[in-house]
């Protein structure tokens, strides 16, 4: 008989909402001005970078929670069917809108015809002193193929949206999990050793085996293209799941948390580089550590059914359910909307809620119009004697349930 679904916990939904809005506010108020200097004037700036990493930690935790319930191949297809179609739609929409907006913001004429508009090169120098990058057909192909990281450092092609880096990293991690899960040699000791390797080996490769400054761009493309700089977030997510099941001692889990925080700090803010973002180093590291501790409380403790939180639980759950779509559409499309609002004369304190509200609306449209129906269609069994089991776990960065 089918088992009843586990009651949804407000603690996990709240963590996902806090993390995804940390990403959105950081991109809108801080990263936008780094890419487009005119996008300033907001009432505050969120310079800390930790939201996406926490979302990946939560994703890894629920990989273990859901993978153990069914067939690994079917589980992997379930993930692909939910993530990839919505991503493809977001890529195409972002490409078309960005082409239109970037040509306009740069003060260039649109190439004639539909093909010219989509793939042509506008003629003449930009009339705007700060032109926007106009994506090309190669950028579109690279983003649809999820290989952006392999060409961005050699300036062959670029991300249409900076947030897209998470999807290929997650798909590689999901594939690895599906392949490793059913192995008979996967003992507890080997699993724990593998988790430590996921944290330590990338650090050794980056800081002891090769010099990132002199080995670029090929080594960097391989290192970042394979997502080695983010393996620690998957390792700590799995380690916390083991700890939540009392298969890892408290002291061992604490060591994993400390190692993950240190790895996050070193991978995002390496000691050998003096990046402009270094001013946000400690807010980023402390923010990651605090949210990681809250993940520990959600993993092992009771649900956060506090009186005040219980009243807003439906709104939190709804936002958590659309967070993957929200994550897909908020950044580059948000910059475009912010520039259009700036040209219309709106001050920063008005632009910010409009951009965030538009991101929520766009996230809902992607979730309700693409992610959920396409996932349902791709995973529905054709034989009535094999009923589809609904997957109610978070599946991705900001992934819906």
UniProtKB/TrEMBL annotation:
<feature type="compositionally biased region" description="Basic and acidic residues">
    <location>
        <begin position="382"/>
        <end position="393"/>
    </location>
</feature>
<keyword id="KW-0472">Membrane</keyword>
<feature type="transmembrane region" description="Helical">
    <location>
        <begin position="222"/>
        <end position="243"/>
    </location>
</feature>
<dbReference type="GO" id="GO:0016747">
    <property type="term" value="F:acyltransferase activity, transferring groups other than amino-acyl groups"/>
</dbReference>
<feature type="transmembrane region" description="Helical">
    <location>
        <begin position="12"/>
        <end position="30"/>
    </location>
</feature>
<feature type="transmembrane region" description="Helical">
    <location>
        <begin position="282"/>
        <end position="300"/>
    </location>
</feature>
<keyword id="KW-0012">Acyltransferase</keyword>
<dbReference type="Pfam" id="PF01757">
    <property type="entry name" value="Acyl_transf_3"/>
</dbReference>
<dbReference type="GO" id="GO:0016020">
    <property type="term" value="C:membrane"/>
</dbReference>
<dbReference type="InterPro" id="IPR002656">
    <property type="entry name" value="Acyl_transf_3_dom"/>
</dbReference>
<feature type="transmembrane region" description="Helical">
    <location>
        <begin position="50"/>
        <end position="68"/>
    </location>
</feature>
<feature type="transmembrane region" description="Helical">
    <location>
        <begin position="349"/>
        <end position="370"/>
    </location>
</feature>
<dbReference type="InterPro" id="IPR050879">
    <property type="entry name" value="Acyltransferase_3"/>
</dbReference>
<keyword id="KW-0808">Transferase</keyword>
<feature type="transmembrane region" description="Helical">
    <location>
        <begin position="312"/>
        <end position="329"/>
    </location>
</feature>
<feature type="transmembrane region" description="Helical">
    <location>
        <begin position="250"/>
        <end position="270"/>
    </location>
</feature>
<feature type="transmembrane region" description="Helical">
    <location>
        <begin position="80"/>
        <end position="102"/>
    </location>
</feature>
<feature type="transmembrane region" description="Helical">
    <location>
        <begin position="162"/>
        <end position="181"/>
    </location>
</feature>
<dbReference type="GO" id="GO:0000271">
    <property type="term" value="P:polysaccharide biosynthetic process"/>
</dbReference>
<protein>
    <submittedName>
        <fullName>Acyltransferase</fullName>
        <ecNumber>2.3.-.-</ecNumber>
    </submittedName>
</protein>
<feature type="transmembrane region" description="Helical">
    <location>
        <begin position="193"/>
        <end position="210"/>
    </location>
</feature>
<feature type="region of interest" description="Disordered">
    <location>
        <begin position="381"/>
        <end position="401"/>
    </location>
</feature>
<feature type="domain" description="Acyltransferase 3">
    <location>
        <begin position="10"/>
        <end position="367"/>
    </location>
</feature>
<keyword id="KW-0812">Transmembrane</keyword>
<keyword id="KW-1133">Transmembrane helix</keyword>
């Amino acid at each position: 008989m089918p088992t009843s679904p586990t009651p949804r916990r407000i603690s996990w939904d709240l963590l996902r909402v806090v993390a995804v809005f940390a990403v959105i506010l950081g991109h809108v108020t801080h990263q936008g001005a780094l890419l487009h200097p005119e996008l300033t004037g907001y009432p505050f700036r969120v310079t800390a970078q930790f939201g996406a990493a926490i979302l990946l930690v939560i994703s890894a935790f629920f990989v273990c929670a859901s993978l153990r319930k069914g067939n690994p191949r079917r589980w992997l297809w379930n993930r692909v069917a939910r993530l990839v179609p919505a991503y493809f739609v977001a890529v195409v929409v972002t490409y078309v809108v960005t082409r239109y907006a970037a040509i306009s913001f740069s003060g260039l004429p649109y190439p004639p015809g539909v093909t010219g508009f989509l793939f042509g090169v506008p003629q003449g120098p930009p009339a705007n002193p700060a032109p926007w990058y106009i994506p090309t057909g190669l950028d579109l192909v690279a983003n649809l193929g999820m290989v952006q990281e392999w060409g961005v450092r050699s300036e062959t092609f670029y991300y249409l949206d900076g947030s897209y880096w998470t999807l290929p990293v997650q798909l590689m991690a999901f594939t690895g999990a599906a392949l490793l899960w059913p192995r008979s040699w996967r003992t507890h000791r080997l699993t724990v050793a593998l988790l430590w390797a996921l944290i330590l080996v990338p650090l050794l490769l980056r800081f002891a085996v090769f010099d990132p400054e002199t080995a670029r761009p090929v080594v960097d493309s391989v290192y970042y293209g394979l997502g080695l700089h983010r393996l620690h977030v998957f390792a700590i997510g799995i380690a916390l799941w083991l700890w939540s099941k009392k298969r890892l001692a408290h002291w061992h889990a604490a060591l994993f948390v400390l190692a993950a925080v240190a790895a996050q700090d070193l991978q995002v803010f390496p000691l050998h580089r003096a990046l402009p973002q270094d001013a946000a180093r400690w807010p980023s590291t402390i923010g990651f550590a605090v949210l990681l501790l809250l993940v520990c409380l959600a993993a092992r403790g009771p649900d956060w059914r506090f009186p005040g939180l219980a009243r807003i639980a439906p709104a939190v759950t709804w936002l958590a359910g659309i967070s993957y779509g929200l994550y897909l559409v908020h950044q580059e499309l948000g910059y475009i909307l912010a520039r259009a609002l700036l040209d219309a004369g709106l001050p920063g304190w008005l632009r910010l809620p409009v951009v965030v509200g538009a991101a929520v609306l766009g996230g809902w449209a992607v979730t309700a119009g693409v992610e959920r129906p396409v996932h349902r269609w791709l995973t529905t069994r054709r034989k009535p004697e094999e009923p589809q089991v609904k997957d109610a776990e978070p599946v991705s960065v900001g992934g819906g349930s």
